[in-house]
Structure formats: structure tokens, C-alpha cells
Design a protein that fits this description.
This protein is about 35% helix and about 20% strand. It is of the alpha/beta class. It has a single domain (about 1-190, about 225-255, about 290-305), classed as NAD(P)-binding Rossmann-like Domain (Rossmann fold). The strands form 5 sheets. A 7-stranded parallel β-sheet has the order 5-4-3-6-7-8-13, sandwiched between helices. The termini are far apart. The structure holds nicotinamide-adenine-dinucleotide and uridine-5'-diphosphate (UDP). Uridine-5'-diphosphate (UDP) binds near residues 91 and 282.
């Protein structure tokens, strides 16, 4: 099979050309690496809003790796077999830094990815989020729950942007038969997170390693479920390689549920840090309780996470120490 790739006009034999938007970010860099290891040609598109050169620097040794510095809100066109649409800042301080741009990235970024997928009959994957459930009134969250989302709060640029992207994915699927795969990702952590990212796992680990106070927002009783990045990427590939009838939305995350106080205690124990806990105001619309029901992913393609929080934290702490 010979395919033409119009970003240079070069032809490639017998390998998939896969676009990863947001490929220089935390999850995107792990995905690009795995796809390259599987022998694919990978185009990483990123505007480096939160992505980092150091995440993808080791991938530049692969002949089949290409980086396009481009904003996904602007149109683009070249040949692809598959698209993983990940571009969007995921950390609350970052997505709230430029909320209009965050919303545009989700919605216009989804349209541009879907248009390209349509053009080549390519499969297109959407990194959706547990945030579509908002401050959930159903626990644990199942895919048939429609959510409890504030449409005009400080988290709305992200939550509603991602909901809008899901709407577009399913409308393209219904109207054009676009081959979609939509995954709702619950909090995921691991190496390649930016230490300055502002999310809870990277904050607590950096604070513990630096002997700084651990910042608990609110009283620390709110819960999250934390998935290690390798488990998630394995699940993404199972979903992407499943039959076209499996569109999602499908939850992916680790169903272990922890309060932020429990997370802080674990980080203190694993780092041996003497840092103290300090309490800071809870940000607006911060969800109180979050845990995925992952029955559907198990039924559809046999996925469940294997790395528990303690093991995942040890690996992540090691990464941050080496920096
Ligand atoms: P990240 O912030 O590390 O990565 C996002 C990447 O997208 C960055 O490289 C950034 O520069 C890039 N980007 C942002 N806006 C862009 C634009 N307009 N054009 C091109 N590139 C742009 O976040 P992450 O944790 O790797 O998340 C990846 C995806 O997974 C995001 O879509 C996020 O919403 C989703 N997700 C992640 C989590 C998680 O816990 N990590 C949970 C739910 C959903
Ligand atoms: N959080 C905290 N201290 C921090 C950063 C975050 O207590 O230094 C809390 C935050 O209020 C939220 C939880 O940890 O309740 C997870 O926050 P994160 O930003 O990682 O993700 P999200 O809120 O999007 O799930």
C-alpha cells in the first residue's frame, strides 16, 4: 500500500501515518513514543502552550518522527491514517490562563481534526475528560450520566469545550460516518508531567521533594482517582484498534478513589519528606467526588489498569528526582 503525505510530498510504504495533536505534552509524548516503537510514522503537532521540547527530544532519534509547530485552531491538511486529538491544556491553572483560547482549542481543534479524518476516511480519537461529568451527582460515574456542569464558571472553558468537542465528534459520526473513538480520561499522572503544571500530583511531589509546605485546597476531603500513564496509553491503543462500531464515549481511569489528604500522606511517606500540610481556599466549582466506572472498557476491549497508586507514585517521584 502506497500513501502520499503532502507535507513535503514523500511516499511511505506499509506504515501508518498518525497525527498526534498535543504530542509534546505529558500524555502526547508517551503516546508518540509508543506509536513510534510500534513502527508507525508519527506527526506531532503542538503550539507548545503547555508542551515541552524536553518531552519529545528523545524521540527525534526516530527517522519517522516529525514535529509541526502549529496551532490546532488553524486549518491544516496532509495525509493521515489516524489522528489522536489531544491538544488542549489539561491543568486548571493553565486552561484558566487563557480561557477563550482553551475553548477555541477544544472546539475548533475538534472540527479541524474531524475534517481531516473525513477527507482520508481516517480514524479519529478524542481525548475527552471526566470533566464532562462536572461536579457529578452520580457516583461512580458511568458513561450514560449526562453530568452536572456549570456553563459559565471558571472551569467551563475546559468542561464545556470538551463537551462541545464530544457533540461534534458524534454529529460527524452520525452525519458523515466519521470513524470516531471518544475516551473520557480521569486524572492521569506520571513521568513527563511538567513540575510547574499545577496539578495535584506534580504539586505535592515537588513540594515534598523541595521540603516546601504541601498545599491542600479546601479541607482535602474531595476525592479523585489516579491512573498511571502507561495503563492509560495501553487502553487508548486497545480502543483505537477496536472495530469501527466501538465509538465510545468510554471511561478510562483507575477506580481507586483517594481524598487529597490521603494522597498527601502517601507522597510524604514515599518521599520521606518532613513537609507540613497547609490549607488554601478551594477553587471555584472544584468537583467533590470523582471515580470512574470502567466496566464498559473491560467489556468492550478487556482493559483495566494494572499499576496501583503507590507503584505509580514511586515511578513519578523517581522522574522528578532525576530532574
Ligand atoms: P498537557 O497540557 O501536558 O498537554 C496538552 C498539549 O496540547 C501540550 O503539549 C500543549 O502545548 C498542546 N496544545 C494546547 N493548545 C494547543 C493548540 N491550540 N494547538 C496545538 N497544541 C496545543 O496535558 P495532558 O495531561 O497531556 O493532556 C492531554 C489531553 O488529555 C488533553 O486534551 C486533556 O484535556 C486530556 N485529558 C488529560 C487528563 C490528565 O489527567 N492528564 C485527564 C482528562 C483529559
Ligand atoms: N489540589 C490541591 N492542592 C494542589 C493542587 C490541587 O489540593 O496543590 C486539589 C484540587 O483542588 C482538586 C484536586 O486536588 O480538588 C485535583 O486537582 P487537579 O488540578 O490535579 O485536577 P482536577 O481538579 O482537574 O481533577
Amino acid at each position: 500500500m502506497t500513501k502520499w503525505f503532502f507535507c513535503g510530498i514523500v511516499s511511505f510504504m506499509d506504515k501508518k501515518t498518525i497525527l498526534v495533536t498535543g504530542g509534546a505534552g505529558f500524555l502526547g509524548s508517551h503516546l508518540c513514543k509508543t506509536l513510534l516503537e510500534h513502527g508507525n510514522r508519527v506527526i506531532c503537532m503542538d503550539n507548545f502552550f503547555t508542551g515541552r521540547e524536553r518531552n519529545i527530544a528523545p524521540l527525534k532519534d526516530y527517522r519517522d518522527f516529525e514535529v509541526l509547530v502549529h496551532d490546532v485552531t488553524l486549518p491544516y491538511s496532509f495525509y493521515v491514517d489516524e489522528i489522536f486529538n489531544l491538544a488542549c491544556p489539561a491543568s486548571p491553572p493553565h486552561y484558566q490562563r487563557d480561557p477563550i483560547s482553551t475553548y477555541k482549542t477544544s472546539v475548533l481543534g475538534a472540527i479541524n481534526a474531524l475534517e481531516l479524518a473525513d477527507k482520508w476516511n481516517a480514524k479519529v480519537f478524542q481525548a475527552s475528560t471526566s470533566e464532562v461529568y462536572g461536579d457529578a451527582l452520580v457516583h461512580p460515574q458511568t458513561e450514560d450520566y449526562w453530568g452536572n456542569v456549570n456553563p459559565h464558571g471558571i472551569r467551563s472553558c475546559y468542561d464545556e469545550g470538551k463537551r462541545g468537542a464530544e457533540t461534534l465528534f458524534f454529529d460527524y459520526h452520525r452525519e458523515h460516518g466519521t470513524r470516531i473513538k471518544v475516551v473520557r480520561i480521569f486524572n492521569t499522572y506520571g513521568p513527563n508531567m511538567n513540575p510547574e503544571d499545577g496539578r495535584v500530583v506534580s504539586n505535592f511531589i515537588m513540594q515534598a521533594l523541595n521540603g516546601e509546605d504541601i498545599t491542600i485546597y479546601g479541607d482535602g476531603s474531595q476525592t479523585r482517582s489516579f491512573c498511571y500513564c502507561d495503563d492509560l496509553i495501553r487502553g487508548w491503543l486497545l480502543l483505537m484498534n477496536s472495530g469501527d462500531e466501538i465509538t465510545g464515549p468510554v471511561n478510562m481511569g483507575n477506580p481507586g478513589e483517594f481524598t487529597m489528604l490521603e494522597l498527601a500522606e502517601k507522597v510524604l511517606k514515599l518521599t520521606g519528606s518532613k513537609s507540613k500540610l497547609v490549607y488554601r481556599p478551594l477553587p471555584g466549582d472544584d468537583p467533590k467526588q470523582r471515580r470512574p466506572d470502567i466496566t464498559l472498557a473491560g467489556k468492550l476491549f478487556g482493559w483495566k489498569p494494572e499499576i496501583d497508586l503507590e507503584e505509580g507514585l514511586k515511578r513519578t517521584i523517581e522522574y522528578f528526582k532525576q530532574r
